[in-house]
Amino acid sequence: MPLDELCVMPRVAGFRAVERALIRGTVRKVFIASDADEAMREKIARLAENRGVVVESAPDMQVLGRACALCRKASVAAILNEDGEGSRGRV
Predict the structure, then answer these.
(1) Does a structural domain hold residue 91?
(2) Which helix (H) or strand (E) holds 80?
(3) Mean pLDDT across 38-47
(4) What distance in Å separates the CA atoms of residue 72 and residue 82, rounded to the nearest whole number?
(5) Digit-coded pLDDT (tens) for 69-80
(6) CA gap 55, 52 in Å, rounded
(7) Domains in the chain: how many in total?
(8) CA 66 to CA 57: how far, in whole Å?
(9) What whole-number distance in Å separates Cα of residue 78 and Cα of residue 45?
(10) Helix extents (H) in the chain
């Protein structure tokens, strides 16, 4: 599980931020902590699957938060597309 990707790439952390990014279509990969709330895990996994985004598991929220260089836990995190555009591009 290459959590080190979260240290250097454009990323977002937290349920709402990842959910918004998935809806916009700007996410390349999602990481979900295994001890996150079940409903949150399912919702993010479903959104990611619908968008064709790769989902990986993190051991727990503490590890995921640290991988994102945060001083707090994170239930989910996502690596964003480098160009910042979604798969649909500009409208």
Answers:
(1) no
(2) strand 76-80
(3) 97
(4) 25
(5) 999 999 999 999
(6) 9
(7) 1
(8) 15
(9) 12
(10) 5-8, 15-24, 38-51, 61-67
Residue whose structure tokens are 């979900």: 32
Cβ–Cβ under 8 Å, residues 74 and 33:
yes
Range of the domain at 67: 5-80
Encoded tokens for 90: 């500009």
Question: Is 64 within a domain?
Answer: yes
Q: Note the pTM of the prediction, 2 decimals.
A: 0.86
Position 84 scores a pLDDT of 54
Is residue 90 assigned to a domain? no
Q: Residues, the chain, total? A: 91
DSSP class of residue 81? P
The first and second tokens of residue 6, run together, are 């979260």
Structure tokens at 61: 């929220």
